[in-house]
């Protein structure tokens, strides 16, 4: 499973950071960084929830 962000759509609301902080982070410029694009199995449910919860639908999950 791999997660991607569309930087043109992302508004850095940080919903994903709150739901899966081991995978997502905001940098000093308030841009979303994906810390672990290849999602480990133990994070899969949280990342799926974060992708579904993104208010701008800026995240994509390839399973």
UniProtKB/TrEMBL annotation:
Entry keyword set: 3Fe-4S, Electron transport, Iron, Iron-sulfur, Metal-binding, Transport
Pfam family, one: Fer4_13
Superkingdom per UniProt: Bacteria
GO molecular function annotations of the record: 3 iron, 4 sulfur cluster binding; metal ion binding
Cofactor(s) required, per the database record: [3Fe-4S] cluster
Coiled-coil boundaries: none
Alphabetical list of InterPro entries matching this protein: Fe-S_cluster_ET (IPR051269)
Protein name, per record: Ferredoxin
């Amino acid at each position: 499973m791999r997660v991607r962000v569309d930087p043109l759509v992302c508004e850095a609301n940080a919903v994903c950071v709150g739901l899966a902080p081991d995978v997502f982070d905001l940098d000093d410029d308030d841009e979303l960084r994906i810390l672990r694009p290849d999602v480990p199995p133990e994070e899969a449910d949280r990342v799926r929830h974060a992708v579904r919860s993104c208010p701008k639908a800026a995240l994509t999950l390839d399973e």
